[in-house]
Amino acid sequence: MKRILTAAAIASLVSSPALAASYNFDVLYSGGGVAALAPGSDDPNTVNLQPGDSFDWTIRSDSSAYWSVLVNGNFFPLMAFATWPSGERIGDFDLNLLLDGTNVVTQSGFGVSNKFVHVGTNTISLSTGLRFDEMRLHYSLTAMSPETPGNPADTNLTGLLPIFGAPEMNPFSTGIAYAVPEPETYAMMLAGLGVLGAVARRRREARAD
Asked: Is 133:61 a contact under the CB 8 Å cutoff?
């Protein structure tokens, strides 16, 4: 009887689905298409996403620069990994764009279909004048079917940045710039600090008299 129970238990373990995996991708962006993983980040290039798996993907400027929307537009896909093999992937996502740590855009999608070789968002609408220095995407894959029957139902992630590059580099969805504050802005800030310092010194001197 013990042998029968042991065999049944082993069979149950072998046939049970693997536990869902959760990944964290933290990317530092320096402009010009240059990106690097932050310390402690998972590497998306080693991930084969399976139904039930999820990831949190952050891309943030590692300087004082920010993205600026120059014209109202529908930007495809904004934040989606390149993936292979070609197929259709169904999933849920929450997208947040932030400026100085504050949410400026939040969009969600449920049961979203990504066809062929990307996984993440599809078209995202943004308004003129919007600025953001950080993009965060939470994505959960719920189903996947390969384009060619017989191919493995895999979702191998590729790269650190979206499939067509950083938002300002996407040749198919133009209208976003990656801007660094002008030197004049820094000069004005420094001048303002100098004035405040001078006023503070005069007040101290006046009290001393």
From this structure: yes
CB atoms within 10 A of CB 171: 7
Q: Is 93 helix (H, G, I), strand (E, B) or coil?
A: strand
β pairing state of 48-49 and 34-37: unpaired
In the block, tokens 């000069």 appear at 187
Q: Which helix (H) or strand (E) holds 7?
A: helix 2-15
* CB distance 54 to 23 below 8 Å: yes
Six-digit token string for 84: 């292979």
Residue 202 and residue 194: Cα distance in Å, rounded? 12
Number of domains present in the structure of the chain: 1
State residue 79's pLDDT score: 98
pTM comes to: 0.80
In a domain, 207, yes or no: no
In this prediction, residue 202 carries a pLDDT of 57
Q: Does residue 41 fall inside a structural domain?
A: yes
Kindly give, in sequence order, each residue whose CB lies less than 8 Å from that of residue 202, ignoring residues fewer than 6 positions away.
Answer: none
Residue 26 pLDDT greater than 80, yes or no? yes
